[in-house]
Amino acid sequence: MTSFEEAETEETAACLHMTFYHPCQNDKMMFHCLNFCKREQVRADEMAKFGRDPNICHYNLVDTRVSRIQFSLQFYRKLNSSELCFEIKNMSKKTKLFVDHTELGYLNKIDLPWKCIVCFGDYQILMEIQEGESLDYFETHLCLSKVPILQEKCIPLVQPLPENSIIPSLFPSQGKSPIEIDENESC
Description:
SMAD_FHA_dom_sf
């Protein structure tokens, strides 16, 4: 036998490809802390956290309107199966997270479809799962889109409702637009 035949089979890792877009990304530099176009390994027992707090989140979004931890991704294997999956959980008390057309409130979680668009505020993230076999780690691969992802995919933008469920356009006599506050500020 040759050394090639005796070599161990290389195990591939599942990879979560994420393409980010924000309408002010050129002006506000909210993505400057993200490592684009390079695959990064994340241990399978760690949660991938996205948010503005660099002490907690590995994926830091530099924007005061983003929660300390906006959302998290957990890698797992389904019970009695070899299928590897991702679960996404909304960690923001103030902002709803949309996975395609499913709305997630605070601490709600859902299995990530193999291809979906995740939205919160003005952020749009196209997420695509590439299968792999490794149980020890997964990889992330981040890219930046120059055009709105929803526009590119011809998916209508979901208009978020204010937390009080009053749609401002239905009550024009009030003349007030909603004000966004940071989760640290009290009402």
